[in-house]
Amino acid sequence: MKLAVFDFDSTLMDGETLEFLAEKIGIKNQVKEITDRAMKGEIDFFESLQHRVSLLKGLEINTVNEICRDLPEMNGAKETVTELKKMGYKVICFSGGFRNATEPFAKKIGLDADFANILHTKNNLLTGLVGGEMMFNNSKGEMLKRLQNILGIDPNDTLAVGDGANDLSMFEYASKKVAFCAKPILKDKANIIIEKKDLSLILNRI
Description:
Blueprint: E1 2-7, H1 17-24, H2 28-39, H3 45-54, H4 61-68, H5 77-86, E2 89-98, H6 99-109, E3 113-122, E4 125-131, H7 139-151, E5 158-162, E6 176-180, H8 184-187, E7 192-194
Parallel strand pairs: 1-2, 1-5, 2-3, 5-6, 6-7
Antiparallel strand pairs: 3-4
């Protein structure tokens, strides 16, 4: 058995979930600025996540789920997942975003599992609070290590794919470190760099 772990936003999905949600209430540019700084590693991911989610306070959860069900796939996403599974990989998504988005997406493209954060709601409205196990700079690496221990998979049989600073912690536990249309902070530590928005290009590099 092998393990392939993908980031969600701007990796499996073509865009940023928080920006799609922010666009609904007219604050996309404000949220995008914070996201960009977090992905470059200029600000702490946990703080940036809390700040961005707080700006969505009052948004109806039904609206959130409707937007999340219709997020665009990255070019080659489903093909890549299908081919990796044929090669013996368990294919997982780790997201600093939200299960509202990753759960339906995982079903659509055939992922084995998805791990993401949870938006807190009250009376069917976002409260501006968020919780979960993907909230910190090192969360993805810690979860990857735990999965490897559970499944008995070695880093030599592990592929990690991401685009931003909060994906960096996965690289410590993966022999195949893919920077996909990534920020410089991730490219510097990668051994596979993909510059075109087509995930299937990974298949002939592993």
